[in-house]
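Shipment paperwork, digital attachment
Item: protein structure file
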Amino acid sequence: MSDTSSQTLRIQGIPPFVDASLRLGRRITAITGDNGVGKTVILDALYFMLTGHWPGGRVVAPGVMETEPVVQVRFGEQVKTSIYNRRARYWLDTERPLTDQVMVISLDAKGGTTIFDPLKHETDFSPSHHLVVPLHLSEQDLWYGAHQYERDFSGTVVSKKTACRGFVEDLATWKAKSSSIYSAFEEILRYLSPPNEEIRISDFQRIDLSDSLYVPILQMSYGSIPATKASAGIKKILGLAYGIIWAIERHLDFAKITAMKKSRTLILLVDEIEGHFHPKWQRVIVKALWFAVRDAWGSDDVQLVFTTHAPLVMAGAEDIADPNLDTQVLVDLEGTPPQAVINASPWTKHGTVADWLDSQQFGEVLQSSDAYANAHAALATLIAQDHASDEEIANLQTQLQAALPDDDPAWQEWSWFLEDRKLQAKAL
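Attachment content:
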């Protein structure tokens, strides 16, 4: 793994950050924190500094702060700083990427994908200089393709350029050609499939008489369904697999056509990695995604940076977590007025999902409902009393019955309390 796969990012004057920085892991960086604390800002700022563009055109315009808006990244021996010009409303020094050795793919929480291919920047001085802009694909584009039309003065289309043909059309072509890219897609799909339920393409069929497209058919445990009719979780997996393979193959093709070398490092940024996934998928997604991308890229020079609200994602990631390579980041609000603070540390294992939920990474959240927690607290309080009235005991009995399951350990404690009270009454 190359040293260039680690960075230090600094964000200043961009709400909710006044001045915060973090050193990312060389391999995996997991970012947790409450809603609205700036987790997505970190991903967007990192993408911006590596590529010179904000992902998906989501330009961050700083609010009114006394602190000068600055974003800075240190990448190996290279340092890049961008300052926001408030008068011009423009980020300065963003014309070129930090390095031509890093390809960056950003996956947003709404299903959009933004792909930065550094090899495109070698065409800066060619007639195709417009290609330097990263390609943004909406979820719809990723499935059905993205096209650009050129029109004459009358509005008539005179040419059409296809930025991406999309999952539905590309997959049928790859399969028909029996190409290595289809095999690569199947391999990454095996990695990303949920436990004990491999997602497999069994056929391609026309499902709409008015549409000539042949749609991939999924063979599921309960039968066959068109990929376009699959659940949100299945469609996210298919989109992930296709988007990653398509972007990497596009990069390799471009390197071959232009006689340039493949970039050394691939960085994958994922916002809300657990989105649409059942808990059994959440538990394996980090490990599956990292290995899938590593194999597709063909080397260990892969970095995964993601945000999550799911303790199960963090617990499952412990299978491959290495404190020497991986970092966990907590973003929290502190002070008055509140400002975002970044706390980064080597990966620490907590074990169970309950322990992760009770950890600082998730704000030491209660592992139960309020009613359950209140019932346990009331039981502890009553037992600690020297004397409890019959009314207090009856009220607590009702509270416990409403909040606790029949097999809760607290019932044994309650039984001992009632038995002890009977013995005390007999003694009197």
